[in-house]
């Protein structure tokens, strides 16, 4: 039983739904003033109250780059079936896997949400994988994603999705940030990231690493080691791979649009994303983002990224895997309804008590702690 789905069932009840609305309203401080809850905990069912639209200008270098990348990537599909060796195809899929792993297990779950603690060797490995993905420095990725959570479903959200899935998936990537967004980005707390030497090393030497790992390695290896054609190396191992990795990784910030809970927004049963399993994942992830089992693409506890994190944990490369069981969620919801306290605060309170009692190898018995 996945507690993300259980949480959805609870949301459907009147008491919990009313309380979730309370979560997005102001809380009474000790001095009697009203303080706004963080937008990171705003549920998907709430209505967007933003009245004014922030106009973002197109970044034409990015527009032209992505147009050419799509053309070259689509041509790479033709080359893959007509003029590419099996080794090049296998190599392309391997680099694609590593790039997605670096963006999901690394930039997203490790650095953005701190769902687990990684050893230095694992952090270096994930940093290299994230560089292969070609999505920019980890520092910038985390900064943007944290702003996305803090300002979720507001116009200043870099991946604001109320205009449609394509706006969140594609348009957000080719638009420059407004002055207000730049100011908000500078206010995002990055103190933990700035203390990570691996991330700061990548930030300093990103374009050097980018050239060798993202550009030179995919093109040179097929030519140098198994004598494939320049077309296969350029259009398959580089262009097609890059196109796939970018679109999959962009879903990290736009997938909530696909699995929205609000029928007036975008119901999950009217959308399909091919191989991606649908669930009510976003409601859970945006309330409680620091659960290592919360997948990027609608899964909970059963996706390949979660499996890889468990493998890293079994190898003692990942520790302190943070998770929240259905029992803790149930207790937290009950406490929130009974006391009127913020729902996230109540769930985290019970989750902390539970984590203190969990064995360190709880990831080996995942069914018990779901």
UniProtKB/TrEMBL annotation:
Its cofactor is Fe(2+). It is found in: Membrane. PANTHER family: ACYL-COA DESATURASE (PTHR11351), FATTY ACID DESATURASE DOMAIN-CONTAINING PROTEIN (PTHR11351:SF26). GO terms for cellular component: endoplasmic reticulum membrane. The histidine box domains are involved in binding the catalytic metal ions. Belongs to the fatty acid desaturase type 1 family. GO terms for molecular function: iron ion binding; stearoyl-CoA 9-desaturase activity. Keywords: Fatty acid biosynthesis, Fatty acid metabolism, Lipid biosynthesis, Lipid metabolism, Membrane, Oxidoreductase, Transmembrane, Transmembrane helix. GO terms for biological process: unsaturated fatty acid biosynthetic process. Residues 31-50 are annotated as: Disordered. InterPro entries: Acyl-CoA_DS. It is a multi-pass membrane protein. The chain crosses the membrane at residues 60-81, 87-107, 205-223, 229-253. This is Acyl-CoA desaturase. It comes from the Eukaryota.
């Amino acid at each position: 039983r996945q507690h993300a789905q259980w949480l959805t069932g609870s949301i459907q009840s009147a008491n919990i739904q009313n309380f979730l609305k309370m979560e997005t309203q102001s809380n009474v401080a000790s001095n009697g003033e009203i303080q706004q809850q963080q937008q990171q905990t705003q549920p998907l069912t709430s209505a967007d109250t933003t009245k004014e639209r922030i106009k973002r200008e197109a970044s034409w270098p990015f527009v032209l780059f992505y147009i050419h990348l799509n053309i070259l990537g689509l041509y790479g599909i033709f080359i893959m079936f007509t003029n590419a060796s099996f080794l090049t195809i296998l190599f392309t899929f391997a680099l694609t896997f590593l790039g997605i792993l670096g963006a999901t297990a690394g930039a997203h779950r490790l650095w953005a949400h701190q769902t687990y603690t990684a050893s230095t060797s694992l952090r270096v490995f994930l940093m290299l994988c994230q560089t292969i993905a070609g999505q920019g420095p980890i520092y910038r990725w985390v900064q943007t994603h944290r702003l996305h959570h803090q300002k979720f479903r507001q116009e200043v959200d870099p991946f604001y999705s109320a205009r449609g899935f394509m706006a969140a998936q594609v348009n957000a990537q080719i638009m420059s940030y407004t002055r207000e967004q730049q100011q908000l980005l500078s206010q995002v707390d990055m103190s933990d990231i700035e203390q990570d030497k691996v991330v700061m090393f990548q930030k300093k030497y990103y374009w050097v690493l980018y050239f060798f790992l993202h550009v030179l390695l995919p093109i040179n290896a097929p030519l140098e080691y198994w004598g494939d054609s320049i077309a296969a190396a350029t259009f398959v191992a580089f262009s097609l791979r890059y196109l796939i990795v970018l679109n999959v990784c962009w879903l990290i910030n736009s997938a909530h649009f696909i699995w929205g809970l609000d029928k007036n927004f975008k119901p999950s049963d009217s959308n399909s994303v091919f191989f991606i399993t649908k669930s009510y994942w976003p409601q859970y992830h945006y309330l409680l983002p620091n659960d290592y089992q919360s997948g990027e693409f609608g899964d909970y506890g059963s996706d390949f990224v979660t499996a890889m994190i468990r493998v890293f944990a079994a190898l003692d490369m990942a520790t302190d895997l943070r998770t929240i069981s259905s029992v803790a969620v149930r207790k937290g919801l009950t406490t929130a309804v009974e006391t009127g306290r913020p729902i996230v605060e109540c769930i985290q309170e019970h989750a902390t008590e539970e984590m203190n009692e969990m064995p360190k190898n709880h990831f080996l018995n995942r069914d018990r702690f779901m």
